[in-house]
Predict the structure of Integral membrane protein.
Amino acid sequence: MDLLRNSSLIAATVTTGLMAGLYYAYACSVMPGLRATDDRTFVASMQSINRAILNGWFFLVFIGALLLTGLAVAAQFGAGARPALPWIIAAFLLYGLTIVVTGAVNVPLNDGLVAAGDPDRAVDLAAVRARFEATWVRWNLVRTAGSLAAFGCLTWALVLEGRGGS
């Protein structure tokens, strides 16, 4: 049981950290970089990025972080007093928030960019961008904060587990 408890906690921490890093990269480089571009470049770039990110490696980590954190929660039960458990539960809830935000806000906004069609033929790219950019950036900051907080909780849970649960 120690192997499952420790390995699931490590895997949850790694995958959550990867997602926190992805959201952070958008927050501090991708979106600020695209902010300086014209409307056509912005829309075309985001459409391309959104197509590229839909791959198995991304989904493995995006969903895996939640599933592995859930497994880490389950592995804590039946092991006596587990001081790491509240931290892992907090991480599960915080990372779950990022999935909800992604599905409720960011994905529909991405779909709106797809619906705009080919940027070379789309009408009023400024309006397409205006409906997307500020809201997407704001909610990506929520995802960044939520996943970073989840990563911090899991890191602290690892420290507690390393101390023998004390």
About this structure: The chain is about 85% helix and 0% strand. The mean pLDDT is 95. The chain has one domain: 2-162.
